[in-house]
Amino acid sequence: MRGTATVVGGGIGGLTAANYLIRAGWEVRVHERADTLPDTGTALGLWPQALAALDAIGLGDRVRELGVSQSSGALLRSDGTAIARVTVRGGSTTLLSRPALLTTLAAPLGPGVLRYDTTGDRCGDGADVVIAADGINSRIRDAVLGERYRPRPLGMAAWRGWVSGTADSSAETWGDGALFGISPRDGGLTNFFAAVRVEPDAVDGGAAFLRERFGGWHSEVRTILDRLDPATLLHHDLYESPPLPSYVRGNVALIGDAAHAMAPNLGRGACEAMIDAVALGRALTESADVPEALRRYDRCRRRPTRALVRASRTMGRVATTTRLTPLRDVAIGLVTRLG
Ligand SMILES: Cc1cc2nc3c(=O)[nH]c(=O)nc-3n(C[C@H](O)[C@H](O)[C@H](O)COP(=O)(O)OP(=O)(O)OC[C@H]3O[C@@H](n4cnc5c(N)ncnc54)[C@H](O)[C@@H]3O)c2cc1C
């Protein structure tokens, strides 16, 4: 089938969907609230399945070329001793900054497709299908399913940023009620992220808090904290979506964080947004009509993404537990050794 699509949200999922449909001969408009592409941002880890989704829109090799590939990483204790070594199954992850990924996704779109500074909130512009790719605070989700499906706080706050110089490898350190991740990324930079168990709005987001909270951790963490530029630090509370009764309603399909915002602990949110976009694109191009395509998309994506929301929450809790940490470390070591 060919037709017309309005995509609300020119983020990772929205731009992937637009690429897929345009390549299949669809007429697409993307409404993006921001007035331009971002020029700074932290890195995303793209897993093999997400790279396969990028291959489906002809951009996988470009992303592999721009990013930094990692096939393994270390899990450490706060004193720097190893809990386990983790190997990526089925290939490697590619670490690439969000701005570089968005620029790559936007490049193939023809003139007039991506419209900045437009919200697309009144999205009944006659398109055959409306793709709600407007992120965690999706207004389209509110409109079609109701505000009771808004994401809920996870009781964790996160910080993200970068410093100059490239880390040799990826490592995540788990300590008492907190974690700190370090990874190489494109542009000769090192990406870092931290998460701490706290109630929403309970801490200020400043570098001083991080330096105090992680000041007793091993030297690689302290080096990052010494070098970080507070002006580039991103801080926010973490949320996850409740189970939605459906990812589709009428001619609207929800993708990415609009459908299944998840804790960042498995590094899968952006990956799943791209996988959704390609699954929806396939369903739309291969089905006889829009209702059949949207049913097929919902059937194929709702269950696996719900499982990932739960698994990401569990991983966040395990990583930041304050109890039985020696037992946890033995169990994690065994699980990773046994594959
Ligand atoms: C600390 C942290 C670390 C993470 N690390 C990783 C990682 O390593 N790997 C990974 O895969 N994922 C990671 N994620 C998750 C990832 O960032 C998100 O899951 C991903 O960006 C979701 O993509 P999306 O397209 O659904 O939404 P977004 O990328 O958020 O895009 C939504 C777009 O919609 C626009 N928009 C919003 N409202 C409107 C409107 N009304 N009209 C028009 N436009 C609108 C926004 O401006 C935005 O451009 C991480 C998240 C966090 C918090």
Automatic annotation (TrEMBL):
Keywords for the protein's UniProt record, in alphabetical order: Monooxygenase, Oxidoreductase
InterPro entries tied to this protein: FAD-bd, FAD-dep_Monooxygenase_BioMet, FAD/NAD-bd_sf
Domain of life according to the entry: Bacteria
Organism: Rhodococcus oryzae
Annotated FAD-binding domain residues: 5-87, 127-311
Protein name: Aromatic ring hydroxylase
Name of one Pfam family that matches: FAD_binding_3
SUPFAM superfamilies in the cross-refs: FAD/NAD(P)-binding domain
